Amino acid sequence: MPKLTRYSKFENELDSLESADIMQMIQEALLGNNVNNPYDPDPDARPDMDDLFNAILEALAERNMIPDDMLEEAMNADNIEDTKIGEQIRKMMDRLQQDGFIRREMDENGQGGTGGVGDSKFQLTDKSIDFLGYKSLRDLMGGLGRSSSGHHDTREYSSGVEQTGETKKYEFGDTLSLDTTATLSNALPRGIENITEDDLVIRQSEYYSSAATVVMLDCSHSMILYGEDRFTPAKQVALALAHLIRTQYSGDSLKFVLFHDSAEEVPLSKLAQMQVGPYHTNTAGGPRLAQQLLKRENKDMKQIIMITDGKPSALTLPDGRIYKNAYGLDPYVLGQTLREVAQCRRSGIQINTFMLARDPELVGFVKRVSEMTRGKAYFTTPYNIGQYVLMDFVSNKTKVVN
After folding, report:
1. 201-209, strands of its sheet edge to edge
2. β 211-218/301-308 pair status
3. Which residues sit opposite 205 in a β-bridge?
4. Partners of residue 266 on adjacent β-strands
5. Distance of alpha carbon 212 from the chain centroid
6. CB 203 within 8 A of CB 187
7. Across-strand partners of 212?
8. 11 confidence band (pLDDT: 50, 70, 90)
9. For the chain, which residues make up each domain, given as ranges?
10. Would you say 30 and 93 are in contact if contact means Cβ atoms under 8 Å apart?
């Protein structure tokens, strides 16, 4: 439940709410289970206008933004949609559509205009996805005290890219970005005409790499069990990462893979409204698909960011059938999963795992994955996973450059 805040400046002035204000208020509902039904067996199911109406109503009520007279009328009404607050909410829904934040689809009766509330579906537009990504990034990075920017820096410096102020003696192959003062100081005692290679001092520069990243999101049933929604924070991290890359790392590429009983690529435009899927965790299917996606990329660094809370419990067999075993770490499932991990290592793909659980068997599995691909393992919670992922991404280092 988000912290309740009373927006007194909006009280009795709901007409003044802009679309961005409305989107900010209902962000959690759009990304979480208030709009999406986590138990719907159809992975392509999308929320309808009734869901949107209820999300806005709940957001207004939580923030004490419904004027007293409207609240009293709504409490006594048989159908809240026919009340004054219902009319205000319909106006807000129209505003979201007119300003390009949602796109309403035609229902079975061919209706889908800007009026009324009903069964017609809606989709989030690219504009709304970008807004949600920006909002998530701002919130997550705000928790770090400052927003990191720039490029991916390597473990070492190399000459010829961006100066850092540090210097070193010239070595064969370095770009001649000379520190003139230091070089002349070395040469002058013997005379400038006697300058040698040993006198040369160059300014060092940071080498910036480009990266291809696949984010693997576990959407198996455990991600919403035990009264805790872990999938919504995972989606927020993915959206924030997408916005960070688009605005700060234009040379990078980012793709998303969901894994549950099987695994599939999901475009950014559909990520926000994806739901928790079937019960099992086909961890092997994720790296297998991620490798196919990363093969197409010509980048300095290739990596997989895996966000999960469950041990491998499913496997796609050669004939397409799904083998499942939810009881402990099945040796066959584990072996096939580690085989995919080993293939990632041979392909130069690092796997960094962000684990939302601490089962001893799971901890052992994650550590083994990290060791095999020289990646990192973070044991986090839904409340701090965003900061861990973004910090790791911004500070991730590529190979040593001599």
Report:
1. 152-158, 201-209, 162-169
2. parallel
3. 158, 163
4. 256
5. 14
6. no
7. 253, 302
8. very low
9. 8-124, 159-208, 210-395
10. no
